[in-house]
Amino acid sequence: MGRIAEAFDRAAAENRAALVIYLCAGDPSLDATVDLVVAAAESGADVIELGVPFSDPTADGVAIQQASERSLARGTTMRGVLDVVRRVRERSAVPILLFGYYNPILRYGEAKLVADAKAAGVDGFLVVDLPPEEADPLVEPLRAAGLGYVPLVAPTSTESRIAQAAALADGFVYYVSMTGVTGAKDAVLDEAAERAAALRPKAGAPVAVGFGIATPDDARLVAAKADGVVVGSAIVRAIASAPDVASSVRAVRELVAALAVACRR
Amino acid sequence: MRATLDLPPDFDPVTGRFGKFGGRFVAETLMPALDELTKAFIAAWADTEFRAELDALLRDFVGRETPLYHARRLSAEVGADVWLKREDLAHTGAHKVNNTVGQVLLAKRMGKTRVIAETGAGQHGVATATACALFGLPCEVFMGAEDVRRQAPNVRRMELLGAKVHAVQSGSRTLKDAMNEALRDWVTNVHDTYYCVGSAAGPHPYPLIVRELQSVIGREARAQVLRQKGRLPDVVVACVGGGSNAIGAFAGFLEDRDVKLIGVEAAGEGLNGKHAAPLTAGTVGVLHGAKSYLLQTDDGQVAEAHSVSAGLDYPGVGPEHSHLKETGRATYLAVTDDEALTAFQQLARLEGILPALETSHAIAALPKIVEKHGEGLTIVVSLSGRGDKDLETVQAALAERAAKSH
Ligand SMILES: Cc1ncc(COP(=O)(O)O)c(C=O)c1O
């Protein structure tokens, strides 16, 4: 079993939802990202989604769009992101998913990226614009390497699409709480958590809910029913509004710790 | 009653691929909507009633068929027999309306209650706003802030037609970013909203839908050139932004193996500088839901395009063009901003036609084609649109050119 699945198992055994924290690599800098990932892990994050910035993040709202722009403007590359993982591994064994869009992966070469990612200490991939129909070129090398793959299921997904996603899932299934982009405010979270719970028997893996979860209160609503809670834009905003790296690390520690408490059932 | 859908060559309707290009690379949320759209389009396209309604609109509302005009003075100038397929004479002044009337009719049939679109030059935005007015549907158009500035007359037209125009401030503030924002709106409002994509790009089924709706250009042109000239052309030429007017023009001649198909991209400031020529100088990647040629960095970030013409200022291209390039059935070349401006003036003075800056690229390619393939060829040019929207841009560019030469 991979570290991601283990993290979900451990959370379930402790009667809490797993807390998944998204950070945009390279915002405000790759050095800072190393510290931020370690801080999030130490404060109670069970899994880290490390965002690989992309120039055209069509599934993201303003917070992650701007973080991606800032990161790219500083010159972040895929190699730089892998280096962050390598450096985190000197300090933490927290499971890390690379989270991003397909083109940088295609450009790097799927098989080569999987090999380099594994060597760096990455545990799995989540690619927002890679539906099951197109996923084979990435999923095959991931399976061969023993790395995880996290497919997305949306409120619009049909039964047959859910089955397709379930067949690919290795680690967990990411349930998108609503039709929309990341950071949206209009998610009805208790209903989303119920749909996630209903999805659980079909998913063949734990189900985490993301999009629109910002506060401990939001997290509590979702954690009551879902296996995992994903928080992204709120973390990115907390980092962006901190005046310097030290205070962004503090802000992330505080927010993640509060979210972790809220994930207890 | 059923009509038939003749699938494009090498097209797989299950994967939505033209050869190895195309497909669907979008958020899961949109996948069911793309399935629904594919089914709805194929059913509508096979329904003779839908086709008859569309044909009547194309005739009575759009003004089809558009003429094939024998440009004698231009012919003499370039050393070829040049025939202009006058899409500039279609309602709203460009080929874009062929697509929007069809797609908005489809939206209505699907029971969608709101239409969104992206636009670069504003021609697709105007054409979508026009079709929405015709069918009584609310319309919102996403347009890069830079394009709002350089295509101001079209912004006013859209607003007068009742559309709401959103100026997009992200990224390069051009067509690519407008499409990003339209996709974000669609993913949010997918249950009631129809996304009317403006070129032969995007995830399956859009490249198929747009090429089918634009293929009227090539079908008409083929019949017209046979009637008027008594033979098939040697060459069909069209400018390529996302590639809709070109694929529409090419579609009529794909099976005529002796007819050369030539697409003209924007070389902008030159292929070594900023340009918008992914087929000529790009690499294969994935943008806006399809695998196709793309301008990108070594790290897979999409590069900013540049063209004096907003409608060509796009780093990607429709997947069928990538396939036609790969198989060699079509070839692609690129002309610079400067060459396009010269061609704009040339067509104005020689033929009394002010072409769109996009279209001017196709005109500018004629001397290059003659140089390569010899004099005396019969050439059909897709005159994709008229240039009224570009007067300010052209005047400013000509003034700059005059200042430089002094
Ligand atoms: C007149 C005209 N021609 C060509 C284009 C380029 O689009 P496409 O390549 O889809 O024909 C545009 C786009 O705005 C246009 O307005």
Task: Describe the model.
With 265 residues, chain A is of the alpha/beta class. Chain A has one domain (3-262): Alpha-Beta Barrel (TIM Barrel), CATH 3.20.20.70. Helices cover 51% and strands 14% of the residues of chain A. Chain A is built from twelve helices and nine strands. Chain A has helices at 3-13, 30-42, 62-73, 78-89, 102-108, 110-120, 136-145, 159-168, 189-203, 216-223, 233-241, 245-262; strands spanning 18-24, 47-51, 96-100, 124-127, 148-149, 152-153, 173-176, 207-210, 228-231. In chain A, strands 5-4-3-2-1-9-8-7-6 form a nine-stranded parallel sheet. In chain A, helix 8 links the parallel strand 6 (152-153) and strand 7 (173-176). In chain A, helix 2 packs parallel to helix 12 (245-262) and helix 4 (78-89) runs parallel beside helix 6. The longest helix of chain A has 18 residues, at 245-262. Chain B is of the alpha/beta class. In chain B, 46% of the residues lie in helices and 18% in strands. Chain B is built from 15 helices and 15 strands. Chain B has helices at residues 31-45, 48-62, 72-78, 96-109, 123-135, 145-150, 152-160, 175-188, 206-229, 244-251, 278-281, 319-327, 337-351, 357-373, 391-405; strands spanning 11-12, 17-18, 21-22, 68-70, 81-86, 114-119, 139-144, 164-168, 193-195, 235-239, 260-268, 283-287, 290-294, 330-336, 378-383. In chain B, strands 4-5-15-10-11-14 form a six-stranded mixed sheet, sandwiched between helices. In chain B, strands 8-7-6-9 form a four-stranded parallel sheet, with helices on both faces. In chain B, strands 1-2-3 form a three-stranded antiparallel sheet, covered by helices on one side. In chain B, strand 2 and strand 3 form a beta hairpin. In chain B, helix 2 (48-62) crosses helix 4 and helix 13 (337-351) packs across helix 14 (357-373). The longest helix of chain B is centred in the middle third of the chain and has 24 residues, at 206-229. Pyridoxal-5'-phosphate binds at residues 94, 96, 120-121, 123-124, 199, 239-246, 311-312, 356, 358-359, 384-385 of chain B.
